[in-house]
Design brief:
8-stranded mixed sheet; alpha+beta; Ribosomal Protein S5, domain 2; binds magnesium ion; binds adenosine-5'-diphosphate; Helicase, Ruva Protein, domain 3; 6-stranded mixed sheet
Length: 545
């Protein structure tokens, strides 16, 4: 074998852009599997529309149109009534990976990294070679259309065909053509994704035109905007050494001590005094940017030994008990439901989160199967439905940890929907694709308690229902046998057969007066609902004769 020296090998050494990295690793962004890839595109555009509308204080009206152009080729068009994107930013917003208005803020939002929209542009480009068509208006009489693509080698946007015009209400419309995708009407498809989005965002209205041309409308359930989440300071317990150093580098404070007080929640000058006692090796008077790794390590150790008040949860805006109820009623119309919201919890010591859960029974709950029904689980993180990767998710673990039998619930046969939602400034996703919540013990425990709370209410309903149906069955059976019994009694004793029959029926009715109304229908009918004027003789009795 030929021997190669380092100089020769390193001639091939090259730097790559982040866009190029994702071009090769598209599965990391949710582009794997044809059905899932289509959902990912819709998801990225719709969550951006929702974030933008909320930020601007506009009740979202979103139209999603999916068309099949040829086998595995589809166009997706998403139009919103949000604030739009100023012309100067459109390339950065839709065609630069890791660029956006959200990454640097410590606030509850759907998007975070600035990967979503550019990911769609990249996906269109690598599967069909086509640009994304954009129309945007910022509402002040200024609108434009253009096409955007990414120069993947340099992670730079390419904006072409720019045309300006003077009209139109504010909003953004994006349209792209994608291949290697497929529309499917399943639990994992676009329709289900949008239905669940409407569930967790009752303040939005979504119009969905599916590939058959059918228009599906998910109406707005509540007319108020959710409270705007406040940006908060991070809690010290959520920090790693590396985080602390990053914050220190960016700090404008003069000293380490004031940097700590200014940058983190619950960190008062009293706490700094406590930290000083423990972290003796740290100079609290020097400039924060000169903090070294060993010092940061010592500080973090000290932070973990002192006592902290839990972080404030004002930064979290959960969906709301009432809002969930209204949305569930509109979308699933269950016979019964119970919705709960738990008090804020904390994971990894310092990150607050809120869990909401609902258990619904009947109506359009659960899933229709060949044999009848089965239960379904609806997972949400910061109001975004999670459709994939269920087995990797803390919320699934929580649901599986519940002893459903105890609640008279059988997820294999009953029409039950279980909703679990987590909201947090920092949802710990299990991967870049954001399809599952990582299995933090505190989150699993809290979600399980929430589900159990919700199930308790439903248990009472099911028990009542079972009791009622047990009574109704007994009543029906007694009434069915009355005629035969009267005949036998009359034969044995010589009493008047009609009178005995009337007495038995009267006696039964006296005990089940509330069943009387259904009784007139039941009488003289067998289970198949056919008129039955002959004395009813249950089949098993015939067999016994
Ligand atoms: N529909 C929209 N309306 C207004 N601004 C948008 C819209 N979609 C995207 N943007 C802007 O583009 C940026 C990048 O979006 P994206 O790549 O999805 O990243 P992220 O949502 O994580 O910030 C957003 O931060 C936002 O500023
Ligand atoms: Mg986004």
């Amino acid at each position: 074998m030929e021997v190669r020296v380092a100089e020769e090998i390193f001639k091939e050494f090259k730097e790559h852009s982040i866009a190029e990295f994702f071009k090769k690793n598209r599965q990391m962004l949710g582009y794997s599997g044809m059905v899932r890839s289509l959902v990912t595109v819709v998801h990225e555009y719709v969550t951006n529309s929702l974030d933008a509308c909320e930020e601007a204080g506009i009740l979202p009206d979103i139209t999603v149109e999916v068309k099949e152009t040829s086998d595995t080729h589809y166009t997706v068009k998403v139009t919103d009534n949000g604030p739009g994107v100023p012309k100067a930013y459109i390339g950065k917003a839709l065609a630069t990976v890791l660029a956006g208005t959200k990454f640097h803020r410590y606030v509850q939002q759907r998007g975070q990294q600035g990967i979503g929209a550019a990911g769609c542009t990249l996906f269109a480009q690598i599967t069909t070679g086509k640009e994304i068509s954009v129309r945007s208006s910022t509402g002040k009489g200024k609108a434009y259309t253009c096409k955007v693509a990414i120069d993947t080698v340099r992670n730079k946007p390419i904006v072409t065909d720019l045309t300006e015009m003077n009209d139109g209400p504010s909003g953004l419309s994006v349209e792209g053509e994608f291949a290697d995708v497929k529309y499917e009407n399943s639990d994992h498809g676009v329709y289900e994704y949008l239905k669940r989005t409407a569930l967790s965002n009752p303040h939005c209205q979504i119009r969905f035109i599916d590939p058959t041309g059918k228009e599906n409308l998910f109406i707005r359930s509540v007319n108020v905007m959710p409270a705007r989440p406040e940006a908060t300071l991070p809690h010290p317990l959520g920090l790693s050494v590396n985080d602390l150093l990053d914050f220190a580098r960016l700090s404008q404070s003069r000293k380490v001590s004031s940097f700590l007080v200014d940058t983190f929640a619950r960190l008062t000058s009293n706490k700094v005094a406590e930290l000083k006692e423990i972290a003796k090796g740290v100079d609290f008077d020097k400039a924060p940017e000169s903090l070294t790794w060993p010092e940061a390590e010592e500080l973090i150790k000290a932070i973990r030994t002192v006592k902290w008040i839990a972080p404030e949860a004002t930064s979290i805006v959960p969906i709301g008990k009432e809002q969930i109820s209204i949305a569930l009623k509109n979308i699933l119309n269950p016979d019964f439901m119970n919705v709960v919201q738990r008090k804020p919890g904390v994971f990894r010591g310092g990150v607050p989160f809120v869990i909401e859960a609902a258990v619904c029974y009947g109506g359009n709950s659960g899933e229709k199967t060949d044999e009848g029904h089965s239960g379904t689980m609806l997972r949400f993180a910061n109001r975004v439905p999670l459709l994939f990767d269920a087995s990797n998710c803390a919320l699934t673990d929580a649901m599986k940890g519940v002893l459903w039998k105890r609640y008279n619930i059988d997820l294999d046969t009953q029409p039950v929907s279980i909703l679990v939602s987590i909201c947090s400034v920092h949802v710990p996703y299990a991967g870049v694709g954001k399809e599952a919540v990582s299995k933090e013990d505190e989150i699993i425990a809290e979600a399980k308690l929430a589900i159990m709370d919700a199930a308790r209410g439903v248990q009472q309903y099911i028990r009542g229902k079972q009791h009622a149906s047990f009574e109704a069955n007994r009543y029906k059976t007694t009434m069915r046998y009355a005629k035969q019994l009267a005949k036998d009694v009359a034969d044995l004793t010589g009493y008047d057969e009609k009178k005995v029959e009337e007495d038995i029926k009267a006696l039964t009715l006296k005990h089940y007066p509330h069943l009387k109304e259904n009784a007139s229908e039941d009488q003289g009918q067998d289970d198949s609902g056919q008129r039955n004027d002959q004395a009813s003789e249950p089949d098993e009795e015939k067999e016994n004769q």
